[in-house]
Amino acid sequence: MDLPFAESYKIKVVESIKKSTRAEREQWIQAAGYNLFNLRSDQVFIDLLTDSGTGAMSDKQWAALMQGDESYAGASSYYNLKEAIRDLTGFEYFLPTHQGRAAENVLFSALIKKGDIIPGNAHFDTTKGHIEFRHASAVDCTVDEANHTETNFPFKGNLDLEKLETVLKKYPKEKIPLIIVTVTCNSTGGQPVSMENMKAVKAMADQYGIPVFFDAARFAENAYFIREREKGYENKNIRDIVREMFSYADGMTMSSKKDGIVNMGGFIGFRHQDDFDKATQFNILFEGYITYGGMSGRDMNALAVGLYEGTEYDYLNTRISQVAYLGERLREKGIAVQYPYGGHAIFVDAKAFLPQVPQEEYVAQTLAVELYLEGGVRSVEIGTLLADRDPVTGENRYPEKEWLRLAVPRRVYTNNHMDYIAAALINVFERRDSITKGLRIVKEAPLLRHFTVELEKA
Ligand SMILES: *Cc1c(COP(=O)(O)O)cnc(C)c1O
Questions:
Q1: DSSP 32
Q2: Could you report the per-residue pLDDT of 387-424, keeping only the tens digit for each?
Q3: Given Cys at both, which of 89, 166, 241, 306 links 261, Cβ 3.0 to 4.6 Å?
Q4: Ligand 1 pocket, 61 CB below 6 A?
Q5: Which of 51, 106, 124, 193 to mutate to test the pocket of ligand 1 (most atoms within 8 A of CB)?
Q6: Using one digit for the tens of pLDDT, what is the confidence trace for 172-182?
Q7: Are 35 and 168 contained in the same domain?
Q8: What is the span of the domain harbouring residue 381?
């Protein structure tokens, strides 16, 4: 018989998690303004809020931590990280930052000005936030298949080349400082971008004289999908795929809290020295000196190890199989999820789950609250709350999809936890007809409102 799935690691340290009663959860979620970000972590049994910074470091990473060099300038930890980044991405220049959005802040300070246009594939929320904060615009050029939950399209993170070319033709080169390719594309469901698409985007960008930067938080998961799904890559080494991917970029921003498997950190990679030089002054101003930029020496050391572990085939196979295992448990019960499954999370189609709840009442948030009440599982809304208001009209922006994201932390939970999560959501599914009302906003911030919004029952 075929040998079944089993994790490619064993457990060395454990952390207790606490169950609660439904009555307790009802009280806690109301006090939290129906915003799961406002819950205390000990009010959560299984935490799928994010896969960002929530992974478990390995024994080798903890060992590297002890050897961190905390020198202000020229620390060996900086050189360890520089060498790992150069080896895996081919980028000669890099700047450490304290996390991914800090990398965006530094890079965009150097490149983006008011009125600019930044095409890309469903820009991540902080990316879009940093673009709009500079009074520039993010233009989404994702393929239409990204919005068709059940269409089996292998690369729903791809950019639509026609949409991209329309943008590149419409605006002068001076107005388009960069194209951002997000790998994998978080906002469409952790969906990968194909190598063919990256290559074509780069060729088109070169033709128009515009640089391409990757938002590379999940570059290793993207490489795994290329190996699984793209012709010609079946037998390739993950790290060779990674190197080829980055050969189609002029630079990258990285949230190391994802595929770097560390709890905090980020960086910017550059192919060209002039981009590095332009960004350096902002890094020193906002993050810290060139050789630490917002990170401790020990954290840079752990990241250097994490980047290698994150690009091991066995690790990626374990991770992505676990996410797919959760997806399968839901899909076999008829729950609509983004398919094929993405790398870091299962995205549940909340409009299909609760068709009777109007989008104006934040349907994915309503489902997130129900899942929490059912089993103490914390998930996150990727829908109207996240989409924010239009900066010009002040009106709610209603995205085509209302997703409930179940993000799986790296090397943290077992498949028993996946079964528990699935059972809780299936229970909600079975009583879905009784959920007729959603939520309404009581208080919100002008930008990135989903983090702090307060709601009440509609
Ligand atoms: C997480 C993430 C970011 C921002 O990184 P932080 O480390 O959370 O600041 C940017 N882009 C993508 C695609 C991400 O997933």
A1: T
A2: 888 888 989 999 999 999 999 999 999 999 999 999 99
A3: 306
A4: no
A5: 124
A6: 999 999 999 99
A7: no
A8: 22-44+313-457
